[in-house]
Design brief:
The chain is of the alpha+beta class. The chain is built from 13 helices and 13 strands. The strands form 5 sheets. It has a 3-stranded antiparallel β-sheet.
Length: 421
């Protein structure tokens, strides 16, 4: 069945008028114990959740996705394959590759599933990948044990695995990924409740920066005089321009700076703990959520490597294995494969890179042009030579060792001439 035929009108309903971008129902929201309803909109209103989802989505989207061809033990890019341009530049008529993968990973970070309708050409090659919101699709288990995808707004049409590209997050049944925000609704709800309490305290609570007191024996003064003293003091000593100024108080008045209350300190600590909980939920180091208290430069650098290894790499492998299964024909899978190029994410500073290049050049696994290619520089003539250290010759090749350690007759004559002069 060609999915291109599915985009025709069915009955009185034109398929191209349907909206697959947003969804309602099918368990798309859950009420947390804090009383706050958790869905993708409320979850994204929490700063740590939004940062985590966007960080993963933008990390996936910025990596080039290439199709490679196996050639014996070697591999090379396969620009002749129909998927090459589609995945690298434009998966469908509307989205760029960055937008497509960013949105797909965003879906995975919120509801645990990325679904895209596969429109195929008559030769079964992929023509377009059209994203569909998870809430628009009912995932069914067939009698053959395979998943089927029913779209209620599409006259309940049922699509097979060959018609849907499905990337799943962590799953308990193997048919659909679990939604991180639904399985951890109480964690996110608590973070939202703490944020709401903090905002309410600033809006409704009496938060003072300081108090001006007068001795009891000085007597009382009227409200107009109080207002005049407070407004004048605030005008002269508040704001950035008036910092570190000198104040003078009369009639025995004293100014007392208000310290942070115990409740305020607890509120700040609760907000930090909420960020730590969200960090654990998505496996992202706190440093990448801009929570760097007590961290040195080296620990931040190590956290970045931990992020790439433990948070991002599992998602990369999920994408690659799902694309290999859904987008390549069975006859192509031994010859072609799809991979993200994440070398740009692990590029160190310029000194670290150049030190690594020097080692690779010295020991012969990178040529000059290989290094220039990694730095997006044009090749140079004679730059494809691979060097070999002289002291690393195979011990079996004794003749080579003898030639290295023994001077030729011509060299002996030159040495003799040099010694006479």
């Amino acid at each position: 069945m060609f999915t291109s035929g599915l985009f025709a009108s069915s009955g009185n309903t034109a398929v191209n008028t349907l909206d697959f971008s947003s969804g309602v129902g099918f368990g798309s929201q859950r009420q947390s114990k804090s009383g706050i309803v958790i869905n993708q909109d409320t979850a994204l209103s929490q700063a740590a959740v939004a940062r985590s989802v966007k960080l993963l989505a933008e990390s996936i989207a910025q990596m080039p996705c290439d199709v490679y061809k196996r050639n014996g033990d070697e591999r090379e890019k396969a620009p002749e394959h129909p998927l090459y341009d589609l995945l690298k530049y434009q998966p469908n008529q509307k989205d760029s590759a960055f937008e497509y993968f960013e949105r797909g990973q965003g879906f995975l970070g919120l509801n645990g599933n990325h679904l895209a309708i596969i429109e195929r050409n008559p030769n079964y090659s992929v023509k377009e990948l059209i994203p569909v919101h998870r809430d628009k699709v009912v995932i069914l288990k067939g009698s053959d044990g395979l998943p089927y995808y029913q779209i209620p707004e599409w006259d309940n049409k049922v699509l097979t695995m060959r018609d849907i590209h499905h990337v799943k997050g962590f799953s308990l049944d193997g048919y659909q990924g679990l939604s991180p925000i639904q399985t951890n609704a109480d964690t996110i709800g608590l973070a939202l409740a703490v944020d709401e309490h903090a905002a309410s305290s600033h809006n409704n609570g009496a938060v003072l920066s300081g108090v001006i007191t007068r001795p009891k024996e000085a007597g009382t003064i009227g409200q107009d005089a109080i207002n005049n003293i407070v407004s004048t003091f605030k005008e002269r000593h508040s704001g950035v321009r008036n910092k570190f100024g000198v104040a003078m108080l009369q009639e025995g008045m004293d100014y007392k700076q208000m310290a942070m209350t115990h409740e305020q300190a607890q509120l700040i600590e609760s907000r930090k703990l909420s960020v730590a909980d969200i960090s654990r939920l998505y496996g992202i180091p706190l440093a990448l959520l801009n929570e760097t208290a007590g961290e040195s430069y080296k620990s931040v650098e190590q956290n970045t490597l931990n992020y790439l290894t433990f948070a991002l790499m599992p998602w990369i492998r999920r994408w690659e294995s799902a694309m290999h299964r859904d987008l390549l024909q069975p006859s192509e899978r031994k010859k072609y494969f799809i991979e993200f190029n994440f070398s740009g994410l692990i590029r160190g500073d310029i000194k670290t890179r150049y030190d690594a290049y020097a080692i690779a050049r010295q020991w012969g696994w990178l040529s000059l042009n290989d290094i220039r290619r990694l730095e997006n520089l044009p090749p140079v003539t004679g730059g494809d030579v691979y060097l070999t250290p002289l002291n690393m010759v195979d011990t079996k090749n004794q003749k080579i060792h003898e030639q290295i350690n023994t001077a030729t007759p011509e060299q002996l004559k030159e040495i003799e001439i040099l010694c006479r002069t």
